[in-house]
Design a protein that fits this description.
Blueprint lengths: L3 H6 L5 E6 L5 H12 L2 E4 L21 H9 L2 H28 L7 E4 L5 H5 L6 E7 L2 H12 L6 H28 L3 E3 L6 H11 L1 E2 L3
Helix pairs in contact: 2-8, 4-7
Amino acid sequence: MTRSGDAAADGGVRVLLIGGTSHTGKSTAARAVADRLGFACLSTDGLARHPGRPWPTEDRPQVPPHVAEHYTTLPADALLRSVLDHYERLWPRVEELITPYALTAGPARGLVLEGSALWPERVARLTLPRTAAVWLTARPAVLTSRMHTTSGYDGLPVAGRRLVDAFLGRTLRYRTAMLDAAGRLGLPLLDTAPARTPDRLAAAVLDAARTVRC
């Protein structure tokens, strides 16, 4: 298989897909790689809505009722099934988005697309040229620490912590299923736990990523 870093340098790769679990640094990695390659940078999160992170943010001070209900009424396995079903429905839009980039050669701008919706089995079945992929991961303890920090877990009320716990439970189940799928298919994985500057992170992603097709 061609290494995407070498291929991107000579114009071979036009689409780089970065999948992985929540809180593995996909957005940071995608921006760093896009800056390095001069590519556009997008997220699958912008293609369709699904109950996302169930804690207050600067832009959303209150957790919407439907999001809270989603995480309080569904057991962990059902939460995973719900998000995987959402990604399955979303996949045609992902293919529609990346196809023009993959089929355009020459000096046209390429694309870095990141998101948990980039499920290994779906990506492995792509027949597009000039497309590379990598999946980011981290150990459960690292994901837990990052999520607790991001959500302000220690300062949340009990009900708020339960929502974070539910999201974390879904995330860890997603991680297990993703690692299993990527392992079976021989797809590249990158542990993002080691601290890296954006430039070093971009280099690590490009070094780990491989073209989807041989």
